[in-house]
Amino acid sequence: MEGMTSPAELYQTHRELLDRAISAAAARDYWSAFPESPSKKVYGEEAAPAGDRAFTALLGKPFPVDVPGAVGAVATERSPYGIELGVSYPKADPLALVAAARAATPGWRDAGPTGRAGIAAEILTRLHARVFELAHAVQHTTGQAFVMAFQAGGTHALDRGLEAVACALSGTTRLPARTSWTKGDLAMEKTATVVGRGVGLVIGCTTFPTWNGFPGLFASLVTGNPVIVKPHPGAVLPLAITVQVCREVLAEAGLNPDVVTLAAEEPGDGIAATLATHPDVRIVDFTGSSEFGDWLEANARQAVVYTEKSGLNTVVVDSTGDYRGLLRNLAFSLSLYSGQMCTTPQNILVPRDGIETDAGHRDVAEFGADLSAALDKLLGDPRRAAGTLGAIVNDGVLGRLDEAASGSGVLHPSTAVSDEQFPGATIRTPVVVRLDAADEKTYTQECFGPVSYLITTDSTAHSLAVFVETVRAHGALSALVHSTDPAVLEAARSAALDAGVHLSENLTGGVFVNQTAAFSDLHGTGANPAATASLTDDWFVAGRFFTLQSRRHVASS
Amino acid sequence: MEGMTSPAELYQTHRELLDRAISAAAARDYWSAFPESPSKKVYGEEAAPAGDRAFTALLGKPFPVDVPGAVGAVATERSPYGIELGVSYPKADPLALVAAARAATPGWRDAGPTGRAGIAAEILTRLHARVFELAHAVQHTTGQAFVMAFQAGGTHALDRGLEAVACALSGTTRLPARTSWTKGDLAMEKTATVVGRGVGLVIGCTTFPTWNGFPGLFASLVTGNPVIVKPHPGAVLPLAITVQVCREVLAEAGLNPDVVTLAAEEPGDGIAATLATHPDVRIVDFTGSSEFGDWLEANARQAVVYTEKSGLNTVVVDSTGDYRGLLRNLAFSLSLYSGQMCTTPQNILVPRDGIETDAGHRDVAEFGADLSAALDKLLGDPRRAAGTLGAIVNDGVLGRLDEAASGSGVLHPSTAVSDEQFPGATIRTPVVVRLDAADEKTYTQECFGPVSYLITTDSTAHSLAVFVETVRAHGALSALVHSTDPAVLEAARSAALDAGVHLSENLTGGVFVNQTAAFSDLHGTGANPAATASLTDDWFVAGRFFTLQSRRHVASS
Predict the structure, then answer these.
(1) Quick check: A179 and B28 CB within 8 A?
(2) Which ipTM did the prediction report?
(3) DSSP B298-353
(4) How many A-B residue pairs are in contact by the CB < 8 A criterion?
(5) Three-class secondary structure assignment of A250-319
(6) Residues of chain A scoring pLDDT < 70
(7) Alpha-carbon span A355 to B39, nearest angstrom
(8) Can you provide one Gene Ontology molecular function annotated for this UniProt record (chains A, B) (predicted)?
(9) What torsion, rounded to 10 degrees, do the Cα atoms A40, A44, A45, A47 define?
(10) Confidence at residue A108, expressed as pLDDT on a 0 to 100 scale
(11) For the segment A386-443, what is each residue's pLDDT rounded down to a tens digit?
(12) How does pLDDT run across B498-528, given as a tens digit for each residue?
C-alpha cells in the first residue's frame, strides 16, 4: 500500500541499531542506545517543554487508543504528586481481546523474526521521541521523581526493551531459516520457521510499568506472539502510550494493529486472572506481589509464566576500606524512590562485635547511628530529598511505613518532605529499624517500601548463613557484601551462588545495588523464589516460540 | 591425585570434537561423530565378537554398578527375542539417591561448563568404545533388530547425546564468564557463574532408552546438574551401562561419581513419581505415555518438565510423481521396528476421489491394495522382514495389534515372522485398517505399535483440515505430505505450522519420516501436545541452569 513502510524495510532502517544491540548483549560492557540525561544539551531546548505540553494535553479526557470490543471507559489513576489526572481508557472485554489477538497472529508470524524486530525497533524509536511525555506519565502514576522517571521509566526502560528485542532476534535466528543436507546420494533442503507460542499477556506493575513491562512485551512480540498489555489500574498511562505507539507502527506497516492491545479495567475486575488462564493465552509476564505471582504460576498452567515478585534483598556488612563511601552509597540505596524498588535492600546484616572500617571499629549501635546520619545528610535539603525519594505510590506502602515507624527499635525515623512544585505530593524519608537475628518473623516478610532492618548477627559467618537461608526460602532480587577480607568476599560469592542471587561487592561510589544496567547486568534470576527468569537471558525468550522444520528432497549435486 | 585426568584436561582432549559438534549444530548439514555402520570395514574384525562376548558376560548375574543407599536387587527385564537375561541391579532408595545427588552438586558446579563438557565427551567416547555391547543390550530389551539397535540405540543415540552436550555448552558459555564494564569514571569487573537448577531426573522408556534418554541426561549434566537415571523396568541394561560409564569417568576425574546414579525398581514401585515430585528434583526428562507425561506436567510442579509423549503421526496423500517410491518408502516407515517408534505414521489421509500418480489415477481401494502389496514385498523374505521389523517389545503392543487385526476393514493383515537366530522372538508384520474420516473415535486415539489407518477424506483440503485439527488436539511427532502440486505443498506447510509439527514432503527415497538426524533435524516440538521441547533447541537446555553474576569496582583505566 502506498506510503507504507514494510516490516522488512523497518528492519533495514534499524539494522545497525539491532546489530549493535546484539553485540552489546553478547559483550556486556556498558552500552546504552537511549541517552539517559534529560538535559537540553542532549535533547535540545524544545524537547522538555514539548513533552510537558503533550502530557498535559492528555489529562482530563479519554485516551486515544482503539481497543477491539471495548465497552465503556475506566479512569482509575491517581497521581502520587497530588495532581488531577482524569484520563480515561476503553474498558476491555477479555474475550474480545483474545479473539482479536488470535486473528492478528498469522500475519504477525509471516512478518518473520527480522521483520518483527524492525517493527519493535521502530516502536522503541518512536517511544524515545516521546520520552519526556512518557516520563511525566511515569512520574504521575508511579511517584518516581521526574529525573528517575525519565531514566528508569524512559531511557533505561527503552534499553531493557531493546535488549529483549536483541535477545529475541538472536534466539529466533540462531537456527538458519534454510539449510541443505547431504548424506551420500541423499540431498535435502530444509526450512525452519519460527512460530510464536500463542497469545502473550503482560501484567504491569504500579511502580515500574515500563521498565518491568517492556522486556516481556518486546520478547513476546519479536518471537511472533500478539500481546495483550494489562496495566495496573494505578499506572495505565505509560503503557497506554506504549500500546498506542505499537498500534500506530503496526498499522503503518500494513499489519493488523491488534497484535498489541490494551486491557484497562476497574480495580478489582480481576481480568488479569481471567486472561492469564484463558486457553489461548500461552505466555504470561507478571511483575508484582508474590501472592498473585505465585497464584499465576500455580494456575496459568496452559502458559509459560515469567514472574518477578518480591524478596528479601540483603546486605552483609563485614568490614570496609571506605566507610564514608559505604554509608553514602547505602543511604542512597535505601532512599531512592522511597525504597519502592524490587531491588532496594531490606535486611542489613551486621555482626554483633561490630565492623572494622578505615574510620576505626564501629559497633552495631554506632553503625546504626552513622547510617541514620548519612540518611539525614542525604535528605536534609527538601528539594534534593524530593528528587531522590519521589512520592509514595499508594496507601498500602504508606500503611506499612507508618506501622514500622511506630514500632520499637526505630534507628531512623521517617519524616514527611514537602515538594515545592507539587504541594499535594506524599513524600516520606525511609525508616530503619533495629532487629536481632532471632527476629526472623519480622525480617523474613517483605516490607515493600521505605522500611529496612539493621539486623545483628553472631558473626559474618552467621550473616552469610542467614543470607543463604532466607533468600533460598523467600527469594531476593539483589544482594550486597562489604568486606576488605578476600576470604569473606570469596565466601560471600559462594553464599550468593548457594542462595541463587546476583551479588554486588563493596559498592561505595556511583553504582548502587538497586540498579542493573541493560546489556550488562542480569536482573532477577530463576535461581531463587523471587523470579522465574533473568532480564534478559535465553530462558526468558526461548519459551516464547518454537522452530518448526519442513524438509524435502532436492537433486543431489 | 596421581593418574587422574581433570575435567579441564578432558575438555582439551575433546575440544576439537566439541567445537565440531557446536558448529554442526549451528550449520545443520549432515554430520555424525559416530559411524553408523557396524561393518568390519569401519570397526575392525574384533569389535563385533568382542561386543557379543561383553554382552553375554553380563547375563545371569548382578550388574556391577554402585548405587548409593541401594537395598537388595531387582531383575525385571525380558528379551523380546526370547533369550534369558537374568541381569539384576541394585534396588534404589529414592531419598538416598536425591541426597547423594545433592552432595555431589557443589563439586560438579565448580567443574564449570567446559569441564563438564569434557567429562560428557569422555563418557560418550567410552560408550562408543562399547557400542556393540550397548547394541546387544538395546536389542534384547527393546526388541530392535541388531542393526537398528546399533544405529538408533548406539551411534545415533550418541550423536543425539553429543548434540545435547554441544547445545548445553553453547548455552552456558554464551554469556562471558568475566567482563569489564566502564561508564565514564565508573569501572567494574563482572563475573558470571553457571549454576544448575537442581537434581535432574531422566525417566527412560522401553523402546528407545538411549536415543530418548541421552539428550536429557547430557543436557542436564553439562548445565551443572546431577542426574538420577530411572530406566523403564523393561529396559534397564542400556542405561545401566551408561550410568556405569558415567560414574567411572567421574571418579577417574576426581569427582564424586554420585553426579550420576541409577534408579532401578520393581515394575509398579512407582519411584518415578516419588522422585519427580521430590522438592530437590528440579528437572524431569520423560519419554513415554501421554498418561504419565501429562501427570508429570501437572504434578512435578517444582521442576521443569521435558516430556515426549505420543501423538497422531499423519500422512496426507494428495498426488505423487513417483508412486513406486512413495509405496516403498511408506511401507518401510510402517514396518521399521514394527511401528514402535514415536514417529511411525498412524493416520494416512487419502481423498475419496483417489490420487493422481505417475502410474495413473488410483482410487482409495487401489491405493490400499498397492500399499498392502508393497508391505508384502518388503516383508516377503523372513530374514529381511525380521531385520526390519525387530520384535514386539511387550504384551501391550501385541494386544493392541491383535485387537486391530481382528476388527473390520483390515487392508493388510498382520502375520507372524520367525527368526532363525532367535526362535523365541515375537515378530509380526503391521496391520493396516481402512477407516473413514467420520471414524474419528478410532483414529484420534494413538494405537502405539504396528497399526496404521488408511482414512478416506472428502478432499485434500479436508485431509489438511483433519490433520490440523487432530494434531492440535492430540499432538504428533511427525507428518508427511505427498503432492505434485506446489499450491498443495504450500498449503501443507502452512497447515503444519498451524498444527505445530515438523513436516516431510514427498519422501520417496532413502529418507523416512520416522527418522530425524541429530545436528540437522529437530525431533519433537513444544508446539503440539506430543512434547514440550525439541531435541535439541535452546528451550531444551536453557531451563536447566541459571547464570548468576557478581560485580565489583576496579580501578578505572
Answers:
(1) yes
(2) 0.97
(3) HH-TTSEEEEE-----EEEE-B-S-HHHHHHHHHHHHHGGGG-STT---EEEEETT
(4) 180
(5) HHHCCCCHHHEEECECCCCCCHHHHHHCCCCEEEEEEECCHHHHHHHHHHCCCCEEEEECCCCCEEEECE
(6) 1-3, 556-557
(7) 72
(8) L-glutamate gamma-semialdehyde dehydrogenase activity
(9) -100
(10) 98
(11) 999 999 999 999 999 999 999 999 999 999 999 999 999 999 999 999 999 999 999 9
(12) 999 999 999 999 999 999 999 999 999 999 9
Enter the CATH code of domain B7-174+195-309: 3.40.605.10
Residues 6+ away with beta carbon under 8 Å from A359: A323, A324
How does pLDDT run across B462-475, given as a tens digit for each residue? 999 999 999 999 99
DSSP B203: E
- List C-alpha distances in Å: A227 to A246, A264, A284, A428, B221: 10, 14, 9, 37, 35
For residue B514, the tally of other CB atoms under 10 A from its CB is 21
Residues of chain A in contact with residue B506, where contact means CB-CB under 8 angstroms, are 552-553
Strands (E), A352-490: 355-357, 360-362, 410-412, 416-417, 427-428, 431-436, 451-457, 479-482
Nine cell digits for residue A418: 514537602
CB contact under 8 A, A502 and B548: yes
Q: Which residue of B has its CA nearest to A194?
A: B497
Residue among A101, A358, A141, A367 at smallest CA distance from A246: A101
Angle at A156 between CA A232 and CA A260, to 5 degrees: 45
Q: What CATH number matches the domain at A7-309, 3.40.1180.10, 3.60.130.10, 3.40.605.10, 3.40.50.720?
A: 3.40.605.10
Per-residue model confidence as pLDDT tens digits over A100-147: 999 999 999 999 999 999 999 999 999 999 999 999 999 999 999 999
Q: A366-386 burial, b for 16+ CB within 10 Å, e for fewer?
A: ebbebbbebbeebbeeeeebb
In CATH, B314-505 is 3.30.420.40: no
Please name the member of A181, A548, A553 whose beta carbon is closest to the beta carbon of B502. A548
Nearest chain B residue to A490 by CA distance is B550
Query: Which residue ranges make up each domain of chain A?
Result: 7-309, 314-505
Question: For B276-308, how does the pLDDT look when each residue is reduced to its tens digit (9 = 90+)?
Answer: 999 999 999 999 999 999 999 999 999 999 999
